[in-house]
Amino acid sequence: MLKKLIINNFAIINKLQIDFKSGMTALTGETGAGKSIIIDALGLLVGSRSSIDFIRTGQEQLNVQGLFEVRSSSPIFAILDEYGIVHDDNQIIIKREINRKGRNVCRLNNELVKTNVLRQVGKFLVEIHGQNQQQELLDEENHINILDRFADDGFQQDLVEYGRIFETYQAKKSRLRMIQKNSQNLAQRIDMLKFQIEDIDSAQVTEGEDDKLEDEKNQLSNFEKISSALQESYRGLSENNVGVVDALGNVRNQLEEIMDYDKSYKELYDSVNGAYYQLQDNAATIADQLENLDFDENRLDNIQKRLITLDNLKKKYGPTLDEVIEFDKKAHDELKKIDIDDDTEDKLTQEIAQAQANLLELGKSLSKKRHKTATALEKSINHQLKDLYMPDAKFDVSFRSLDDDNLSNKGIDQIQFNLKTNVGEDYKPLVKVASGGELSRVILAFEAIIAEKMNVETIVFDEIDTGVSGRVAQAIGDKIYKVSQFLQVLCITHLPQVAAMSDIQFEIKKETVKDKTETKVSLLNDLQRIEAISLMLAGTKVTDLTRKHAQELLELAEGEQKRLD
């Protein structure tokens, strides 16, 4: 349950700290005092969408904090473990900060988390019911989800399995549609890939081949120049006893005679000696080059033709030969994948048919269980509506089966909630027959039934009693009190009968402080509750008679609580 709520710089709230207890808590006060703002702040803690518009005028950021006490069996702890968030006891602390630059900081037990983690945790902490929930009940697409909430664990497991098969079924159908839609394009693509692969593969390209051929072409194209240069170089180094090598050898011999007389002579000798042997090696290398030098005119012609082939491939498939080779590899891979797609079209069709058969079988089983759940729900809702002074109202769940080829992710059923409010009338869709007050009672009937099964800590009713009065208001107060026997209930109300049924009552007021409006919250004692409920009864001026009426209402409520307990 929610134990403490701290709000700073949120809308017209400056600083606020509220300590909550179990049971039923009423939040009362004039319209616009900030009751719903408190609920909006609570919504932020459990992952609702943030906005810089929430930040109080003149402030740079808002922050909201909440302390929750959680049952040891709550699924929340598995979520905390999944994200590595420490939890030493059954308490959860959530903090959220929003600044004017749009920065949104969420902390869970002092660990930074994303907003989606707050949502995962929040759905097991707080459930807020107000205008949005009325819209949910009026949206027929949500009726199947609402009905399924009342089903047993076995149904829920089957529904998860159905959803898993349905997801695979849809993926396979989408894949098949893509293959069939693109079959003509794929055929053209296959022809193109085969042509490109044949074009490259037939050339038998090897890595670095063009560079090697360019080198060889340059040698053959400049054969005479190379041969002449090598011959002259060899003659200059070695021939006719006047070559450079012989001359350097003579210098070497002369220096050898005097190298022991001075260190500098020894250094000269070493340098010349090294050069002498290096030139000998160079002369031998040039001789080998001359011996191996050969000119093949046919080879030069073949190289030029091969380079033209490689250049054409580079123009078509890449500026470099390496990119041509990579293009060829990718073309092979793509063709292989397309061929697999082509081969699997028949296989996909068979798999889709089998998945559809499995879905139909499981869907029929789910439908059978839904009918059973719907019968029990109708009986329970109708019983609750009688308690809420709708004795002639009848609630009904109608079913329509979907076509085999248009199954939904929920099964074969399409669900619609119907209601007739008077004897002799026909059932009509809930959206068409329920007034605001009637719809509030239908919603409360649902909540009263599901309260014992809800895996949540706190439920908030945000003016769910709008549009009712008199004995209906008392009946609603009774129902909300019954819900509070299973869950912590926070209730924003303008009805004195509902406020009187609460265990605790907070009064919310607006005050002007230093030319700014602020929301203030006060926990009311017994005498203050009489004054507050008197004002709710009287509307403007409180008299001794309205105080007496308020005190009587509180005494009657105490009796109702004992009866309901």
UniProtKB/TrEMBL annotation:
Gene Ontology CC annotation, any one: bacterial nucleoid
Residue ranges of every copy of the RecF/RecN/SMC N-terminal domain listed in the record: 1-510
Domain of life: Bacteria
S-adenosyl-L-methionine keyword on record: no
Keywords for the protein's UniProt record, in alphabetical order: ATP-binding, DNA damage, DNA repair, Nucleotide-binding
GO BP field: DNA recombination; DNA repair; SOS response
InterPro entries in UniProt: DNA_recomb/repair_RecN, P-loop_NTPase, RecF/RecN/SMC_N
Function: May be involved in recombinational repair of damaged DNA.
Entry's family note: Belongs to the RecN family.
NCBIfam families named in the record: recN
Matches recorded under PANTHER family: DNA REPAIR PROTEIN RECN
Protein name according to UniProt: DNA repair protein RecN
Species of provenance: Companilactobacillus alimentarius DSM 20249
Native organism taxonomy: Bacteria, Bacillati, Bacillota, Bacilli, Lactobacillales
